Amino acid sequence: MTTRFLLLISITFLCFNSMVNATSVEVHVTHAVFHRPLTNESYVESYLSINPQTLSYKRQSDSTYQASLIITMLFKNDKNEIVHFDKFELKSTKYRTIAAIAADEQSFLSERRNALTEGNYIVDVEIVNDKLTTSVSEKLKIELNEMKYSFSGIELLDTFYENKSASVFSRGDIYLMPSVINYFPSFKNQMYFYTELYSPKEVEIKGKILLQYAIVKKENGKVMDEFSNSFAIEMGNLMPVLNTIDISKLQSGNYEFKLQALNRSNEILAKTSIDFQRSKLNKNSNWQLNDTSSMVSKTDVQNTFVNRFTAEEIQKRLTTLYPVANSVETGYIDNLLKDKKENNMKMFYYNFWVNRNPENPIAAYTEYETQLMQVNNAFGLSFKYGFETSRGRVYLQYGAPNSINKSTQSSDMLPYEVWEYYSIGNQRNVKFVFYAKDRSTNDYELAYSNKRGEVGDPNWMSKIQNLPSNTDFDSNTFNKNVGNTFDRDFNQSIIK
Q1: How far is CA 49 from the centre of its chain?
Q2: Is the per-residue pLDDT at 484 higher than 90?
Q3: CA–CA separation, 371 vs 388, rounded Å?
Q4: Which are the contacts of 351, defined by CB distance < 8 A and separation ≥ 6?
Q5: Cα dihedral sign for 235, 241, 243, 245?
Q6: For residue 146, what pLDDT band results from cuts at 50, 70 and 90?
Q7: If you count DSSP H runs as helices and E runs as strands, how many of each does the chain have, helices first?
Q8: Dihedral angle sign, alpha carbons of residues 96, 99, 102, 103
Q9: The most confident of 8-22, 103-117, 238-252, 279-293, by mean pLDDT
Q10: Bridge partners, residue 234, by sequence
């Protein structure tokens, strides 16, 4: 059983003053119930995600800024009696400047585990930050039948990877970063989930169990066949399930993810589900490059969000579209920037987002603006914006990588980063290699990618190793010259 609730869903751009004067903390909370079948115990995992820009900060003795939160979780029974409570302090990252707080788009996470017996509960969560208080209440059901198969709650993940270091988010050697909001914007093209299947008491632990999953449209109950599949797992008292679903082609809408376990006779042993929302920007366009009038005519932008932009601002925003525009749109942007007709630029910019989200173009625009801010903060330089860099372009076009291996200290090689994606479209195990031309810059260029349509320079290793471009490379030469660090970083497989 999983209970999820969302508080204060909004995308806001806040200055420090608005943080200080905020009226509530933006926090997202997820609860998932798990069992320990050998001891017949249950526990609730609670995940909290907090927007740092909605907190009140205090200056510390070391001149940094930090926010402190007191979080109280009350678990009440059907009679409204408190049967368990958990109170703890949570501190934010320390920020060197006020500007750093305003620029931080990354929520910070916390996870708590509380042991509870079987029953119905009301969970009250109170978050206190200075003089700000935010409270929310939700129902939770815990049931454990030793004589039946059962699932734990489904934990949706932002990412997962192998990590042998102990962490509150780890299970064994796997780090599981929870996705506290059941929302998948356009740049999230993979759905990662974790759950556990428990066997009945005294059942024979032998053979395999078939797991089937499906994504179902909430509005009409239609099963999305393209996103349905099955796989087998070995039987055990506790069977962990960690899997990935490619949702790059899943269109916007409200969905239910269903999971069930079956035996050899195709009988359902256990089932569970979780709701989620998808926002998919449509990058396909029917516009024709030479049909410029149809792209900017018959669109009144006077009462739209683009009308507030000046001529200079709309020109700059058009350039930010290059990483995500198709070839037709790119050509048209070039023409608009040459002509510099303000109204035409505004109409194109508005239609660009209408084409991706006809029902709510401002949501598509706002989502992309958030990504731009993240990219500019992460990769921006004094002489170029983050979206103009190679890493920024790849991030905006393909989303956040599933893993990054990097090196900045090797004496034999220039600083490099290897980005790896589980899949992009129908291509799996996609890798991008970026390198800095010298050690004094953070401007990394794309040296190589196995992504179809991207860079495939046969001499790309010579760029990383800073050798003449005619160097004859093979694996032995490479390992002899620079050791196995890069070879490890590039060739290690991400978790399937």
Answers
A1: 13
A2: no
A3: 13
A4: 295, 296, 299
A5: positive
A6: confident
A7: 11, 25
A8: negative
A9: 238-252
A10: 208
| Beta bridge partners of residue 151, listed in sequence order | 197
Position 123 pLDDT exceeds 90: yes
Per-residue pLDDT at 24:
67
Q: Which long-range contacts (CB under 8 A, 24 or more apart) does 84-88 make?
A: 84/114, 84/116, 86/112, 86/114, 88/112
**Whole-number Å distance between alpha carbons of 172 and 370:** 34
pLDDT of residue 198 exceeding 90, the answer is: yes
Relative orientation angle of helices 342-356 and 311-319, to the nearest 10 degrees: 40
CA gap 1, 71 in Å, rounded: 23
Q: 186-195 burial by CB neighbour count: b if 16+ within 10 A, else e?
A: bbbbbbbbbb
pLDDT band at 461 (very low <50, low <70, confident <90, very high): confident
Q: Say which residue, 58 or 161, is predicted with more confidence.
A: 58
- Containing 209, the helix (H) or strand (E) segment is strand 208-217
- The torsion region of residue 345 among left (phi > 0), alpha (psi -120 to 50) and beta comes to alpha
Q: Which two tokens stand for residue 41?
A: 């115990």
Gap between the Cα atoms of 494 and 324, Å rounded: 26
For residue 108, give both structure tokens: 């910070």
Rounded Cα–Cα distance for residues 9 and 26 (Å): 8
SS3 364: helix
d(CA 104, CA 98): 10
Residue with the larger pLDDT of the pair 291 and 270 = 270
Structure tokens at 136: 């929310």
Specify whether the CB–CB gap between 141 and 78 falls below 8 A.
Answer: no
Strand partners, 197: 151, 239
Choose between 2 and 94: higher pLDDT.
94
pLDDT score of 215 more than 90: yes
Within its chain, how far is the Cα of 48 from the centroid? Answer: 15
| 428 CB-near residues (< 8 Å, 6+ apart) | 422
pLDDT band at 124 (very low <50, low <70, confident <90, very high): very high
Other C-beta atoms lying within 10 Å of the C-beta of residue 294: 11
Radius of gyration in angstroms for the set of CA atoms belonging to the chain, rounded to a whole number: 25
CA distance 255 to 464: 44
Residue 274 has pLDDT above 90, yes or no: yes
